[in-house]
Amino acid sequence: MNQPFPSRETGDFQITALSDGIMSASLDLLSGIEKAEADLIQRNAGINEPGDIHINCYLIRGRGRIILVDAGAGMPGNMQLTANLAAAGVSPDDIDTVLLTHCHPDHIGGLLDPEKKPVFKHAEIMLHPLEAQHWLDDKKFEIANERGQRNIRLVRQTLDAYAHNVHFFNGDKIAGSILPVWLPGHTPGHTGFRIDTDDKCLLIWGDIVHYPHIQSAQPAVSILFDTDPIQAEQTRKMILEKAVSEKLLIAGMHLGQAGFAHVLREGNGYRISCTDK
What we know:
Layout: E1 7-10, E2 13-23, E3 30-31, H1 35-44, E4 53-62, E5 65-69, H2 80-87, E6 97-99, H3 105-108, E7 124-127, H4 129-135, H5 138-143, H6 146-161, E8 166-168, E9 178-182, E10 191-196, E11 201-204, H7 212-217, E12 222-223, H8 229-245, E13 249-251, E14 260-266, E15 269-274
Parallel strand pairs: 5-6, 6-7, 7-8, 11-13
Antiparallel strand pairs: 1-2, 2-4, 3-12, 4-5, 9-10, 10-11, 13-14, 14-15
């Protein structure tokens, strides 16, 4: 079957980027940069709608496993993940594991159908224990604004719906060679996934960046969604430098439809270079 989506081979695994569409957003969400400067960076990168955020999920196949990393937003009228899974030859019932980078709505919204029932009926859900602890904290719910409380309710509904099959990362590799990598700051349990082979390494880095061209050039720029902006900045700088020094192939939920990229040093910052290799 011809592969209609960006895809890479790493060791025994094929990793495929599946779009879940565009989330309408605004550069006003950013801090640490003037909006006009952020807009210019986006337009110089060829982005016509500078404030919008593209959403990716990743399908991992190999060693008899069919694994999904994040499940998209599941927004009515924009639920592309299910259609793209079908185009990739996969049914929701085929998914045996869903790895969650974290529990923001654009990453877990696709886990439930309109009746709030599991979409991936046979899947184990895996996440960092600190992530569950964060969203299940009643004190955080009490002090959250309306949007925050809505997000917390969604996480709780989702974890309840999959309660029979929710498991936490414990440092062990998944499917023999997929290593969860704790990348805190954006949320307390924000996690990436690293697949190493003898000659290359792929890292799915979740939400290290939301606007890749802006936040690679200026890693100190944060977004409103960061739970701990200072820690998120430290993690972003660390992983950008690691991506350069170790020549990592990067996959990210907001890298755009190319799905995969390398990171290059440029000036006082970095540059995201989307790649077809």
